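Q: Please design a sequence for this.
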């Protein structure tokens, strides 16, 4: 086994140890695989897998016969969601999409536990990456669709938390480069999310659905290759005997850490729980971009043709990470300027603003519906909505993560971070059921987008209404 090169002894790139960029590209390829598959998922279920007349190429006119009953477990899952024979397949797909993206946020709790207790981070990352790669390739066997989803859910749970943890391990406590390292790492996530749809979506449109899923699998394999050859540049991990030894040495500290929470800490915990409950609604609205908004991008949108190439509807999913790249540094500069003028909103206020902007972004779609009528319309409507939605995301998501680490009592910070991600789990599941209002035509398109607006704005106003007691509970960290 190769000897590790300690982070302080590694050559640096942009002022950071090489190990950071090993993890950057590992995560980039993993996110390429995850978002590439996610970008196709809803359309694949609605236009190919669960219908009797299949769209051979994504967005194409050619058709082939299909039989949804050949998919193992389809009948059971369909009946669990809605057994009515008149329920449109989009309704079932919406709920399946919600549960899949939700469970992806739940399993990292188990993956982190297994790494800490038994396997160590590296082994857990390998296991997760291999399971995810297998899951993508199993997608080629249409009857094993639900098995593929299960492999991806479990694999992501093992992979995701343990790569992120290794970024922090590259830096000593108090190293001023740590925040910058996570910013670079976050860019890797969004680079993968941006590129994947340009590749996977284009292959699904031009060659076939399974080539798109196959490209996602290849991306995951590339991530594992980068991780394998970069092992020596990762920080040493402590697991097994080392953990037991450390536990003996810190037994007294551990006993102290088990003391009950004091009144101030309890207030902080309850404040975070309140924010997380409101966060559920935020994510339920936000995740419509991969659910009902992707359906809109496919069925109601005229995508441009550039030099004879028609832009696939799946490219819609790349606008969000593109806008994150463009807007994140601008927002940082804006907040710095506000801070200099003593006008920067508190963290809680930023989260309220983010949720309100998220809600208001769907007014763009309301206007689009009124302009378009029953016809297909411009691609600018969903893209402009996504631009505003991304601003809302940047005001809430990274701010919320930072707030959890600052406000949580130190000895339960991991538990509280798990709770934060648990809100994403419930939010994603709720997004699937909210999508039923659109897919089952319970609401008109205009009514549905007004409903999303109301949810987002109401959530933001609720955060604002509770901001004073929340700030008081959180003390100086608000």
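A: Design:
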């Amino acid at each position: 086994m190769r000897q590790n090169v300690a982070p302080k002894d590694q050559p640096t790139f942009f002022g950071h140890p090489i190990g950071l960029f090993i993890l950057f590209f590992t995560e980039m390829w993993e996110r390429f695989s995850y978002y590439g598959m996610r970008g196709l998922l809803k359309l694949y279920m609605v236009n190919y897998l669960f219908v009797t007349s299949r769209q051979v190429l994504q967005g194409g006119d050619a058709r082939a016969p299909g039989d949804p009953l050949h998919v193992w477990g389809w009948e059971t899952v369909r009946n669990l969601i809605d057994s009515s024979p008149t329920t449109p397949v989009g309704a079932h797909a919406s709920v399946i999409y919600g549960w899949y993206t939700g469970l992806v946020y739940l399993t990292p709790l188990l993956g982190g536990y297994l790494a800490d207790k038994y396997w160590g981070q590296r082994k857990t990352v390998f296991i997760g990456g291999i399971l995810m790669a297998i899951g993508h390739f199993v997608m080629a066997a249409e009857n094993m669709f639900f098995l593929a989803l299960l492999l991806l859910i479990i694999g992501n749970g093992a992979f995701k938390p343990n790569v992120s943890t290794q970024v922090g391990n590259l830096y000593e406590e108090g190293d001023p480069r740590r925040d910058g390292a996570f910013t670079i790492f976050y860019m890797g996530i969004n680079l993968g999310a941006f590129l994947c749809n340009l590749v996977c979506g284009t292959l699904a449109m031009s060659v076939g659905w399974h080539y798109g899923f196959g490209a996602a699998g290849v991306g995951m394999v590339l991530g594992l290759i980068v991780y394998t050859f970069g092992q020596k540049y990762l920080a040493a991990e402590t697991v097994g005997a080392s953990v037991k030894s450390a536990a003996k040495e810190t037994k007294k500290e551990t006993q102290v850490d088990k003391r009950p929470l004091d009144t101030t800490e309890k207030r902080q915990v309850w404040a975070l729980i309140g924010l997380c409950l409101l966060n559920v609604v935020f994510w339920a609205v936000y995740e419509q971009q991969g659910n009902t908004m992707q359906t809109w991008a496919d069925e109601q949108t005229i995508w441009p043709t550039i030099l004879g190439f028609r832009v696939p509807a799946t490219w819609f999913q790349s606008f969000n990470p593109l806008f994150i790249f463009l807007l994140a540094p601008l927002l940082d500069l804006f907040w710095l300027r506000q801070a200099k003028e003593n006008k920067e909103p508190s963290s809680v206020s930023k989260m309220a603003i983010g949720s309100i902007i998220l809600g208001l972004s769907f007014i763009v779609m309301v206007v689009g519906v009124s302009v378009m009528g029953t016809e297909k319309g411009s691609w600018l409507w969903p893209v402009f909505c996504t631009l505003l939605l991304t601003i809302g995301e940047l005001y809430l998501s990274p701010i919320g993560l930072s707030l959890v680490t600052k406000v949580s009592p130190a000895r339960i910070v991991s538990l509280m971070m798990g709770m934060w991600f648990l809100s994403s789990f419930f939010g994603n599941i709720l997004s699937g059921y909210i999508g039923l209002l659109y897919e089952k035509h319970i609401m008109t398109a205009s009514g549905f987008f007004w409903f999303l607006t109301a949810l987002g704005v109401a959530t933001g106003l609720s955060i604002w209404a509770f901001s004073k007691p929340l700030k008081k509970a959180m003390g100086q960290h608000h």
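Q: Thanks. Anything notable?
A: Residues 260-478 form a domain with the Growth Hormone; Chain: A; fold (CATH 1.20.1250.20). The chain has two domains: 1-244, 260-478.
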